[in-house]
Amino acid sequence: MMEDLVPLSDTEFNILTRMLFDRFGIHLGDQKRVLLSGRLSKRVRETGCGNFSEYIDYLRTDPSGREQTELINRITTNHSFFFREGEHFAYLKDNVFSRIEEAVSKRSPPAVRIWSAGCATGEEVYTIAMLMRSHFGNRIDGLDIGLLATDISVAALSQANEGIYQESKLKELPGEWKRQWFTKAGPDQFRISDEIRGMVLFKKLNLMETPYPMKGSFDVIFCRNVMIYFNAQSREHVVNAMHKCLKPGGVFFVGHSESLNRETCPFEYVKPAIYKKGEGDRGIKP
Ligand SMILES: C[S@@+](CC[C@H](N)C(=O)[O-])C[C@H]1O[C@@H](n2cnc3c(N)ncnc32)[C@H](O)[C@@H]1O
């Protein structure tokens, strides 16, 4: 409620937005003032601070860094759902899985590495896992698959690991998948199966902190509806860092409401929200 908001002065707003930008790349313009005080007022009180200036001091002097984690948990929007932007999964099946099929038929199955960056509560990466299981069936056991999912929000990651979802998040899923890989966990809640959950490794990662600590490179990176928070400079920073993590020929997905700057983008454009690293491309463009 508006009357519960702790007053936020211009200086306090500027300090907090600077902090969010410098540490996480998150850009909140002036129009986000109400959003910021709305999301943080309760936290200011929970920490026993009397106003935002005290809270800022608390944030700055907390040696554990835990309050920073709390801050980011409150600010980020972790909205996601299963099978979101379905065309991406169709592209994955038709273009990436088909290449794996070919290699399998030649008895040289490759290692497949897929990264869901900004995975929120896990719906995106679990959709990929189900798609792989449904496409490859029992042959999946003969494949070396690595699914990595990362996010800055520990709260979102913990929900992802738990794997329990409101029924509304499953609306786009094929009924058969729902029957096969979910069990009822409450009045309108569903739990994802261990078979799917066990395919994914969840890790905390701030996308602004580059280079990324990855062993080896990826065939596919999903970074959808994450860079909406970033300004052009942070977006470019993250896109270049991800380009370095992809194998030549690798595919890069962004959200449909996002687009990359064609002038500075190191990727080849495939179609809306789908990009590719050139087959012979081993580094970023000068
Ligand atoms: C709207 S969700 C997108 C979830 C999923 N990719 C999808 O499209 O459904 C955006 C996620 O990006 C994460 N995020 C924002 N800034 C980040 C950063 N600097 N590093 C890592 N994750 C970040 C947020 O915590 C949030 O969970």
Automatic annotation (TrEMBL):
Residues 1-280 form the CheR-type methyltransferase domain. The keyword Glycoprotein does not apply. SUPFAM superfamilies: Chemotaxis receptor methyltransferase CheR, N-terminal domain (SSF47757), S-adenosyl-L-methionine-dependent methyltransferases (SSF53335). One of its GO terms (biological process) is methylation. InterPro entries: Bact_Chemotaxis_MeTrfase (IPR050903), Chemotaxis_MeTrfase_CheR (IPR026024), CheR_C (IPR022642), CheR_MeTrfase (IPR000780), CheR_N (IPR022641), CheR_N_sf (IPR036804), SAM-dependent_MTases_sf (IPR029063). It catalyses: L-glutamyl-[protein] + S-adenosyl-L-methionine = [protein]-L-glutamate 5-O-methyl ester + S-adenosyl-L-homocysteine. Its EC number is 2.1.1.80. The keyword tRNA processing does not apply. Keywords: Methyltransferase, S-adenosyl-L-methionine, Transferase. It holds the Pfam family CheR. One of its GO terms (molecular function) is protein-glutamate O-methyltransferase activity. This is protein-glutamate O-methyltransferase.
